[in-house]
Amino acid sequence: MPMPRQRKQAWLQVTAESNPVDYLEKIPLFLSSASANPFDWKWVTIATHAALYSFAVCAAQGTDPSILVRKSKNGKERLMSFSNVLQRCQNSAWMDTSSPLVLSPDENRAIVDLQKTFRNNFVHFTPMYWSIHIPRMQTMVRHCLEVLDRLTQIPSYAHFTPTMRRRIRSSLSRSRRALSLLDSNQPRGDQTMTGS
């Protein structure tokens, strides 16, 4: 009687390098479907925020990733906040392998908008009516992609393989192309938010 075949165990393996690459690859995926499904803008903002955070961690960690981990009052380890990690990337005292990240005023506003207005409200959505002018999101994502482009080029102690580096470049390029397609003839305006 033949032996039953053993099922291969499936595992998801996530590393400090594969995590940001995965988030970055989700941006063009959701951008390409956003005109047909506007709810995909939610996923664009979540993926963009997560990619920025993850690549900033790679850039700021140096040789000891634990420098970015803090203990909470109850003793739980927590990764330093997005804002604090990004500030480290902009501080020459912390960036021992390269020049610090420099943000333009527009890029800084876009990152604050991404986190505080969009990502936080999508992830922690409270009952309300929220109407978002999509061109505002497009502009925000475009600025964030420029920051991502520079973050991915900061020499770090993270070990991105040549294949990962090609995937990074491809994702940035596909994201820019998808944004260009979405840009055609859309009026500009402000996002409004009203509670109910």
What's a concise summary of this model?
The chain is mainly alpha-helical. It has helices at residues 18-33, 40-60, 82-89, 105-123, 134-153, 162-183, and strands at 69-71, 77-79, 128-131, 192-195. A hairpin with a 5-residue loop joins strand 1 (69-71) and strand 2 (77-79).
Low-pLDDT ranges: 187-196
- Assign a percent range to the helix content: 40-55%
Rg, Å, rounded: 19 Å
- Please give the number of β-strands: 4
Sequence of strands across the biggest β-sheet: 1-2
Please report the distance between the alpha carbons of the first and last residues: 68 Å
Q: Number of helix segments?
A: 6
- In N-to-C order, the SSE pattern is HHEEHHEHHE
The largest sheet, given as strand count, sense and whether it forms a barrel, is: 2 strands, antiparallel
Tell me the strand percentage band: 5-15%
Number of separate structural domains = 1
Q: Pairing-aware structural class of the strands and helices?
A: mainly alpha
Shape: globular
Give the mean pLDDT: 88
Would you mind describing this structure in some detail?
The protein is mainly alpha-helical. The protein has one domain (18-62, 79-181). The protein is built from 6 helices and 4 strands. The chain has helices at residues 18-33, 40-60, 82-89, 105-123, 134-153, 162-183; strands spanning 69-71, 77-79, 128-131, 192-195. The N and C termini lie far apart (68 Å).
